[in-house]
Amino acid sequence: MSANEAPLEQDLAVLIETQPDGLAAYLEGVHPADLAKWARNASDGDVTIVFELLDSEQRIELFHFAEDKVSARLVALLDVDGLVEVIESLGADEAVDLLVHLEDDIAEEVLRRVDLERARGLRALQTYDSDTAGGLMTTDFATVESGCRVGDAIKELRQEDERTIGDETGIFIVDEHEVPIGWVSDRDLVTTPIHTPVEDVMAGIPVTVRPTDDQEDVAIAVSRYGLQVLPVVDVQGALVGVVSAEDAGGVYEEEAEEDIRRLVGTSTEEQTHLPVMVRVRQRLPLQVLTVLGGIVTANILRLAMPESKAGDPAAFNDILRYVPIVIGLAGNVGIQASTILVRAFATGEVTPDRELRVLSSEVLVGFLMGLLCGGTTAVVATLIETDIDGAVAFGSAVGIAIAIAITWSSLLGSSIPMICRRLKFDPAIVAGPFMITLSDISGTAIYMLSAHLILSSAG
Amino acid sequence: MSANEAPLEQDLAVLIETQPDGLAAYLEGVHPADLAKWARNASDGDVTIVFELLDSEQRIELFHFAEDKVSARLVALLDVDGLVEVIESLGADEAVDLLVHLEDDIAEEVLRRVDLERARGLRALQTYDSDTAGGLMTTDFATVESGCRVGDAIKELRQEDERTIGDETGIFIVDEHEVPIGWVSDRDLVTTPIHTPVEDVMAGIPVTVRPTDDQEDVAIAVSRYGLQVLPVVDVQGALVGVVSAEDAGGVYEEEAEEDIRRLVGTSTEEQTHLPVMVRVRQRLPLQVLTVLGGIVTANILRLAMPESKAGDPAAFNDILRYVPIVIGLAGNVGIQASTILVRAFATGEVTPDRELRVLSSEVLVGFLMGLLCGGTTAVVATLIETDIDGAVAFGSAVGIAIAIAITWSSLLGSSIPMICRRLKFDPAIVAGPFMITLSDISGTAIYMLSAHLILSSAG
Hints:
22 helices, 5% strand, 459 residues, MgtE N-terminal fold, 66% helix, CBS-domain, mainly alpha, homodimer, Tetracycline Repressor, domain 2, 3-stranded mixed beta sheet
């Protein structure tokens, strides 16, 4: 692939730093999609410098390609005039997504100043949840009535097509109640003689959705029928919006990412660019759940234990009862680190020259999580293991051993995918059950060894 | 969504059974995408009956929408004449995917009989791996040389456009060496006056790929730049193929599904339609890994144990050393069942009326896996725990307790998403760490209780 963002990042850093005069000329040759990607990890100051140098067409294209988070930062750089221009030039679905980022009174002022019909369409779109068909659809679509000819459809599109950005293709054929009865692709409009009745070339409408339908239904419908656009209809069946294949495809990516996030307990995207503390905060909830579950398990196991006399010293049994915490945490940490790295390799987020930096920061994340989880376990174990003589020493030993084992697992989880890449294996094969099993076994061994050493040197 | 496959399935079952005469008329009203979906789970006999009744255009559309597995079954129903017609009518990328399913000599005969130029294109496509840009691209694309006008591009498309099926849109502008320098969308061809030079309306080429590039690079490029088609070029930069956005989008779905499959240890798609034994076979490798890892861990823990005399009866310690197996298996089984059901709910695979059947078959799957994993553990434990007096009783107790705990986890993993759906919660929130923690705790408790009961009643 000939697109590579590392040079862009370096070029922009140098130009912003040393020769702002050359920057404007350089930006003319940069694709807005690349600029949008760069802006994700760039500082506010750099983004402002670059944005100020773009002309209004470049700005609109940047908004078209920018992610939600980037758009939210960019709208803050525009005055009301600039906002009106952007809102009028984007697709209606994208315009509505931008309005969300504005203060209510500013959004209201912008809406008052855009074309009346467009404002009405945008207000209607604003009422739908973002994860419904209504939230995905745009009101920018073209229709002709049945009985027309191909030439009429072309004429209609030429009148409508004032905006340059928009993913909608083809034209819907509607009956007198605005109910869609067919659709003609742009390609058919190009290749069919203009006097042909549209009914002769139109494809049927295999499926429609309602604005309140879930976005996943939209994605399924578009994918199953291979649609370029999906019609959204109201209760009477009249066409009120269309969802493009591109927007519907985004749903699948989003839902799949959601599934993975749920299974791994964290988003896997752009993790390696986040500050260490943010990474710890994002991954901690899963570990807290595991620690709590492990503490409950440790106590269930105590209930099942042969009775010991109060005041007995900590025994092998007692250390063993905390193994479930280690197994759970080691598995989590190993699978998080390896899944994040495998995906980061696949998307090109981690280039070979960033490997060492990413490795050390991931191990630091693991170490901090180990400290927090080990510390929590130490405190709780000290408080509840009152039957054990020397509960403080026992709790501390367990906690420290957990911290050591978790740090080890994060080293394992981040280094093995890197080693696989070096050896030209597909790193993906390790980022699953294999990693969990390896973390479990080695984590448990390290935990037992550490706990024994600490307890025996303390005793 | 107005598409629902349950009625189609029922209608076809009734018509095939009772009135084959009405079937042909009924099939005319069925969308080929729905028919392709139906064929995934239909018997060979039913598929044959339906396929025989389709005319050649319907058959070609069915191939266009059919998944690989269905296509493989369908090509077997065609003679060489039929094959030639299908291969000539499909997009080149789809035609090549079909040729794979044919015996070598039949494929050769088909290729000899299709148009010479097309055969050459197909042979070239056959050389690429299916997970590369070359494997995704089609050689069906249109170009005009720079310096042409919009009208020339339209004329070119009218000549090329003999096939009806194909997702490629727009036309590439190439220089004298066939190097792409721009692209004009079908929409721009429709809306631009025909005398306009193509250079005035063409978009630039932000990125190209080589045929050997990984399919993930293709998906990333198409998604990042919002492309309708991605040009594939050879070493000299000349255009050799194009990948449509639709085909590139499939890569994301595939890779995401792959990630989830790896994390869950099994494919999650259409699981509830598979025979129980197939489901067991698919999910077993993950469990085997867990059992092996758990047995290793049990032995590491034994090494760390305070020395006991040979001939000691099985102690609490010994049962405890097998908890890692239970925790691993319970987590696996719970997460597999819940992830599969959550996805099956989301895609409409499991309708409320199928719930009970799906629940009982999932629990049966869990029970069988529990038997196999418990049995394996029982045998291994009996063989290696030679220090324990009554190793057979000990091994059996551990094995039976594991089987009980795993069956419980599969009941938990399948029933909780169903309960969530009944209570109108999003079932997705439970199919993750929460399910693992719950399975871990309750599985461990059930394991300890069962093992103690069995051991004490045996002793």
